[in-house]
């Protein structure tokens, strides 16, 4: 199979040729665990969850690494502010983060490595760059030597002499004033005694952010990976600096495809903690559940900006409710027909099934798949209204369940225990006997229990 994705390195749709039963290697940059994530942080994770589900459904193995940055100035500041240890802070937010993944129905990645578990490997990697003359020591800090690497700037499409240094950008994680050989050079090892630090051949300190992800990839994959991704804001400096380190160390590309996910804006302004316009993922889930946000993200192309507003939110809520109403209706229909439905069974000969697979293989065209889903919802409601043959409804329902699953939607429906079954059977009998007043009373109870 050929999987087409937009590659930021080549600035075009490139394809991966996937062999049967191949294991696809994926790396997605994860959070710095010092605070709650907001819904903008979730967008790359949900997009990659769909990619993950799609590949698994097509029969491929997936080795998916999603890191946790548990060393950072922000973590130190948080720990000092709350008068807690850095370990307690990071453990708490890692737990909260995994709860968010569960709440939003995100398949857990294969590995979620922490920086603190890889410090010795990071030191070894840096030492190798020093020996190859790609890094140098300055005031007990170790910096990457960009002037030796002509590829620097190619990922972010900038000329090297015009690139800003990752340490001096306004939105930098940490500002380090060091005399550098070249303005664009960046820190691999930061000399510091503040917060958690480790002894190294260059003095006490801790790893630079850009080196951490490179080492995870080298240690856990050991070769060029298939897909590396993150938010658009990571293109420079983070991913640019990752790529150049891997090239310098291994003389080969870090990733075949660089996949970047567009920002989430609130009324034309980027959603970010620094601007104070964020909606926390946990708060959004508490109010709307998981499906509204997934619909919002998947009804736009992954590399485009989403301008989030009340109108868009209401549209997503309506769609989620429409889908749930149909699922409740189907559950009731199959109960009365005494039909057990295998939701994992797919009709691969069905045209909509084939078109869904084709759309996702063509640059993750989730918009087209959402349109297919809408078409099926309309058709099923019509077939149920017109009391069409059970075979037709079963076939359409199978495709509905398949699309909902591959896109990662999860609707919680009330289980039919004996009390519910009793009410349903009684309701049906009363209607058949034309005892409509009594039937309406039962119907009201079923509505209150969210059955119909």
Across the major sheet, the strand order is 4-3-9-10
Name given to the CATH homologous superfamily of the largest domain: HUPs
Number of separate structural domains: 3
Strand-residue fraction? 5-15%
Reading off the top of the CATH hierarchy, the class of the largest domain is best stated as Alpha Beta
* Separation of the first and last Cα atoms: 42 Å
Under the CATH scheme, the architecture of the largest domain is 3-Layer(aba) Sandwich
Average pLDDT across residues? 94
What is the tally of beta strands?
13
Helix content: 40-55%
What would you report as the Rg, rounded to the nearest angstrom?
26 Å
* Main beta-sheet annotation: 4 strands, parallel
Examine the coordinates and then state which fold CATH places here, giving the name of the CATH topology of the largest domain: Rossmann fold
Total of DSSP H or I helical runs spanning 4+ residues: 14
Order of helices and strands: EEEHEHHHEEEEHEHEEEHHEHHHHHH
Taking pLDDT < 50 over at least 5 consecutive residues as the criterion, the unreliable ranges are 168-173
SS content category: alpha/beta
Shape: elongated
